[in-house]
Specification:
Blueprint (H helix, E strand, L loop, with lengths): L5 H13 L14 H16 L3 H4 L1 H10 L9 H11 L8 H22 L4
Length: about 120
Amino acid sequence: MTKVHHTAYKPRYEAYILDTVCTDYEGNPLTTRETKVEQLFKQFEDEQGHMVARVGKQKAVAEWLQGLPLDIAFYYDDIVRLAVRLGSINANPSDKLYNKVCENYWSFMANIILGMEVKP
């Protein structure tokens, strides 16, 4: 796949993340985007919400993701393959781009998640 504009790949990352959110705490299936986003933030708040005051929400979400609460890519090769597949980088990235994608992955994914948050 060829790199596309962020407005094209951002929804792909959102869908990728939300595909990992399937049930609520009682095991009931979540079938709408709204219920999946709600559950995602509930899980974050329950597991890592206490860190927000100390490090800020973006960093707290990034750190939470590093604990692998969601079934998302975490090996470097898988992260880069995901970036290529979803269109955020071109195939066959340079070593420099490969490393940059991997170094920024958790922060990037945290930003994608925070972009889904419903503001009151």
